[in-house]
Amino acid sequence: MRPKRFVRFIAGVAVAYALTTFTLVAQCPGVDPVASGLQAPTKVAAAKGYMLIAESGFGPNQGRISVFNPDNGQVWQFVDGLPSGFSPPEGDPSGPSGLTLVGNTLYITIGLGDAIIAGPLPNTQVVNPNSSSPLFSSVLAIDLGPKGKEFNGGFTLTAADQSSLANHQSVRLQNASGDSVAMRMVANFPDYVPEPVDGVPDNVRQSNPFGIVAIDDHLYIPDASSNNLRVVDLPSGTFHTLTAFAPLVNTRGFGPPVSEAVPNSIRRFGDSLLVTLLAGFPFSPGGAQVVLVDPATGNQTPFVTGLTSAIDVMPIKSKANTALLTLEFSTDMLVPLPGRLSLYSSPSAVPSVVSSCLNTPTSMAQDKDGQVYIVEIFTGRLLRVNLP
């Protein structure tokens, strides 16, 4: 059996619901829950003094973007009805999977959703003839309202709106107060590519955009299922693959000799990019890493190694230029153990553990005051973490 037949594409959403035996930690020193009730949150980003949260939702087309105000602790829905669906093999919710604000435009990545379904044999998948949305594996843009009303919220995307967007037609959403925002599709990646296997000639490999960052007129999007990094040219709307991520060595002592890379988050780091590689089954402790990618050439350099189930990385403001945080979904996916937040004074330094009792963390962000926030997909919480 080929190594890829062992792989479970567990980036973000799928992990949280497949591993339901995680023990929830009631007390976690230095970690304060500030919001709850989020629906499978995958990413959090700071924007205009707020925290924006991408949620996959709990059903078809229940994805949404929520807003958290750090000043008063309030949470509200900015836009609802975004593409989402249940993805194989466990039927996990998959939808909004990344977001970034550039000027007055919010860019949102949409994950694999239910574009594919489980195939007739184990570890196979085929095209879903009744997909919930035509916008899976895409990048959407919302052109916000005037200053002071950017995130008033209460907008809903309808099925008709999704069809219009899929036909490259912009739509205008209006809330009950009469505020409006314009929405458009930036890029629609292929939902899958053929990958025939013995006994299933129509087997496919799905696409799963999982994160986004902007540099100048380009968007960079890691694909957690295709193991590559795509670039979208905003002026033309065209896209191409910048680089592919090679499999990582499996040090478990069982399973395949290598694990798929599973790139699942991306950050700008000066003129370069930082990409976290989760490392797929069997999730070797110390086998995940952060790589430095040249956005012009796609050349990759190991940046932080020795991680386990790496899910995010973030350079820290107000610290040394090389200081950064790493976020791990779990310190052992097979047990499974809680996640971990670590602080590095430099990429090669021995890190200090900020917190080792996080429950299925998937993303982090830093607000205008330097506070760090983390979302947990399984608990539906937003946490504020006190840095040393």
Description:
This protein is mainly beta. The protein has one domain: TolB, C-terminal domain (Neuraminidase, 6 Propeller), CATH 2.120.10.30. The chain is built from 2 helices and 34 strands.
Summed up, what is this model?
The protein has helices at residues 13-18, 159-166, and strands at residues 31-35, 41-47, 50-55, 63-68, 75-82, 85-87, 92-94, 96-102, 105-110, 116-118, 125-127, 138-143, 155-156, 171-174, 180-188, 192-194, 204-206, 213-215, 218-223, 228-233, 239-244, 248-249, 258-259, 263-269, 272-277, 288-293, 300-307, 310-315, 324-328, 339-344, 352-358, 361-366, 372-376, 381-385.
Distance between the termini: 47 Å
Whole-number count of domains? 1
Helix content: under 10%
* CATH superfamily heading: TolB, C-terminal domain
CATH class group: Mainly Beta
Shape: globular
Low-confidence stretches: 1-25
> Can you list the strand order of the major beta sheet?
2-3-4-5-13
Class derived from helix and strand content? mainly beta
Any key phrases for this structure?
388 residues; mainly beta; Neuraminidase; 5-stranded mixed beta sheet; 5-stranded antiparallel beta sheet; 45% strand; disordered N terminus
Blueprint (SSEs and pairs):
Layout: H1 13-18, E1 31-35, E2 41-47, E3 50-55, E4 63-68, E5 75-82, E6 85-87, E7 92-94, E8 96-102, E9 105-110, E10 116-118, E11 125-127, E12 138-143, E13 155-156, H2 159-166, E14 171-174, E15 180-188, E16 192-194, E17 204-206, E18 213-215, E19 218-223, E20 228-233, E21 239-244, E22 248-249, E23 258-259, E24 263-269, E25 272-277, E26 288-293, E27 300-307, E28 310-315, E29 324-328, E30 339-344, E31 352-358, E32 361-366, E33 372-376, E34 381-385
Parallel strand pairs: 5-13
Antiparallel strand pairs: 1-34, 2-3, 3-4, 4-5, 6-7, 8-9, 9-12, 10-11, 12-15, 14-15, 16-17, 18-19, 19-20, 20-21, 22-23, 24-25, 25-26, 26-27, 28-29, 29-30, 30-31, 32-33, 33-34
